[in-house]
Amino acid sequence: MTGTPGAAAEPFGIRLRRAMDTRGPLCVGIDPHASLLAEWGLDDDVAGLERFTRTVVESLADRVAVFKPQAAFFERFGSRGLAVLEHAIADARAAGALVLTDAKRGDIGSTMAAYADAFLTPGSPLCSDAVTLSPYLGFGSLRPALDAARRHGGGVFVLALTSNPEGAEVQRATAADGRPVAQVILDRLAEENRGAGVLGSFGAVVGATLAETGVDLATGGPLLAPGLGAQGARAADLPRLFGAALPRVLPSVSRGVLRRGPSADGLRRAVREETERLAAVLPGPVRAPGEPGERVSER
């Protein structure tokens, strides 16, 4: 988070809009699963995890808008894995990247408040710029995290329409008032973002691999769109899927970039190529990150 002691923190939505406009609208996932470590020639242990994560952060943190580390791949190594995640979050933010921790937390009462303390409260070793949340214990159960994000200038991305086929069982089910459950979630996010201005801090997760959404995406907040690259979605699919909401889309790529490592040059080329593909379809200033000191131009 930003700001001086006693001053109000700058809202996440404002910081995200600035990062997307200056660095390009790309979120790079950090997903160090066993098969990817093997592709890099690393062992599936804490040393391999640390080498992989440090290489990604050091290669890209000065040029991508957002990193999205998947917490589960660090948690599987216990406390030593979490220590790697803590350092990655701190190092990425110090280099100017925003960090969205993909934890998909969702619970009630004091437990949800504890998750908010962990991921959204300054001073926590895992404090990030934003966190993913699951609303399926009821949107109101997320209140401690929503309040913490508002208080500290953080953001949340709430699961709305995910790309996994099983998600439709819940997300496309009909609520008591006749709306799809996903629409209920999106409408509640719109309420949280009311009056935010340029971009709200309360976002939704909408998979880029969906054939269609069938809902109103006018939430006023960012739309995290995972699934580009290895999962089958293409940049060219985004205008059809998101329509008028396209300026608020934050596309996310993981394996499509990570498989270009362990070379730092390979990772950087992958980010540049992904950003150039997005520049062809996204409105507004889309920048392709260059080498430090290299001039980049708006399209």
TrEMBL record:
Keyword tags: Decarboxylase, Lyase, Pyrimidine biosynthesis
Pathway(s) the chain acts in: Pyrimidine metabolism; UMP biosynthesis via de novo pathway; UMP from orotate: step 2/2
Xref: CDD domains: OMP_decarboxylase_like
Catalytic activity: orotidine 5'-phosphate + H(+) = UMP + CO2
Entry keyword annotation includes Transcription regulation: no
Residues annotated as domain Orotidine 5'-phosphate decarboxylase: 25-270
NCBIfam families registered for this protein in UniProt: pyrF_sub2
Name of the protein this chain belongs to: Orotidine 5'-phosphate decarboxylase
